[in-house]
Design a protein that fits this description.
The chain is globular and about 50 Å long. A hairpin with a 1-residue loop joins strand 2 (105-106) and strand 3 (108-112). With 159 residues, it is mainly alpha-helical. It has one domain (3-133). The protein is built from nine helices and three strands; from the N terminus they run H-H-H-H-H-E-E-E-H-H-H-H. The protein has a three-stranded antiparallel beta sheet.
Length: 159
């Protein structure tokens, strides 16, 4: 991989890590944070998203969102298990895309059919495709460790 592509890959990995870590900083360690307000503001698929705000599911939803952001961000930051965390990041971005939708607009009238959530999902897909954890990250190092190299199921997580 040429140096410029490696630098861009690292840049994209770091900016996506920051995006998830910044979101986690407002959620994971704030005891007052809840996904309920966000879910209540959904429009196009309101009934579907309100399922996750039901009293029985909301603690689980809050946990998955806040800790999901944190773990995805940390994984991208250090370049470990990026091919595991990035698909979860894509899933979150697609969910947020639909949650912000007021068809055909996304979040506001400035975004017609496409918004930054789809761009982020595309960047995460790129990070999977180019094995971004191998660019100044721990995935390359993990791949060479005996414990990982001798176990195909574990090796697949970092390759």
């Amino acid at each position: 991989m040429p140096g410029t592509i490696r630098a861009l890959t690292f840049y994209f990995r770091m900016t996506m890590a920051w995006t998830f870590l910044y979101a986690a900083s407002h959620q994971t360690f704030d005891s007052d944070w809840s996904a309920a307000k966000f879910l209540a503001g959904t429009k196009t698929f309101h009934a579907f998203f309100m399922t996750f705000a039901q009293p029985a599911l909301l603690p689980f939803t809050n946990f998955l969102v806040s800790w999901g952001h944190l773990l995805i961000g940390l994984s991208l930051l250090v370049g470990a298990l990026t091919r595991v965390s990035a698909p979860f990041g894509i899933l979150l971005m697609v969910m947020y895309y639909f949650a912000h939708m007021d068809f055909p607009y996304i979040e506001n009238t400035s975004n017609f059919l496409v918004d930054y959530h789809l761009v982020y999902a595309g960047v995460l897909l790129y990070l999977i495709a180019v094995r971004a954890g191998h660019v100044w990250g721990l995935d390359g190092w993990l791949e060479r460790q005996a414990f990982v190299a001798t176990r195909p199921a574990v090796l697949a997580l970092v390759r």
